[in-house]
Each structure stands twice: as structure tokens, then as C-alpha cells.
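pasting for ref
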Amino acid sequence: RIIDLEKDGRLRLLDYPFGIARKLEEWDTEAASSLLCIDNCEHQKETASGAVGVARTLGLDSYLEFLRGDAFDALDTHFSETESIDLLWCDFGVGSRMKEYAASVWKFIRPGGFLCCHSTLTNRRTREWLERIRQQADEQYTGIPSGEYVEV
């Protein structure tokens, strides 16, 4: 976990100071770590469904839940305001709906957490959203309140 790495002085990811140890302790919970993978598997060469097999091979399948479906539908069933997300990786062709999705999930991301987006070079609509983030555009354009994020 990030807090353990920070305490041990082993947090080296880009040598970025993720947080102050006491702040991380405030956010730390006894909840088990997990990975939720949501994919509609409709892409011609989708690989997400193979994540279960890889996790099984690595002995990590007890941490992984694979949901074949729409990320928007999962908002009501797999996200909770009592459990925060450290990292949310958006690897989907949401395109013109990125602002809407960001607005819906932002409240679930822990302060200091990450919303990472894939396909920002190959998906024009996702790229447009990213450019608005980089410009620190207002919430009406990004779905995220101004001043609550930084672009890394």
C-alpha cells in the first residue's frame, strides 16, 4: 500500500511527494485492497477479459472483480461514498461523455487520488476533455470543480 511504502521511504514513483504520512494515515482504512475492472468487451481486439486469467496466474484473483458492462451503469452498483478510490483508470472510448463520467466519479476519488485516462491521443473527444483539464477550465467543461485537481 502507498502508506507503507511512504513510511518505509520506498515510495519512488516519479519521486513525487504523494502526501504527508499523517495525512495518509487519516485516509488509511482496514479495508482490503481490490481492483475492479469494468469493460464492455466490445472492442475488436479487447484484452480486458484476459485480466482474470493473468490475475489467477499471479495468485491475485481474489483481489480482482471483473465486470463486463458499461462504466456508467456500474456507478450505482460498484461505487460507494463510504469507500474511496485511490486510482481510477479510465480506459474506454467514452469520448464525448468524459465530462459526464468525471463529474459522476469525482466524489468517489480520495483526496490525493488519481483519475488516469487512456486513449487521450487516439480518441479525439477524450483528448478535447484532457485539453480542457490542462487549461484548468471550469467544471462546466471538465466535470470536475476548478481547484480540486492538478494535471500530471
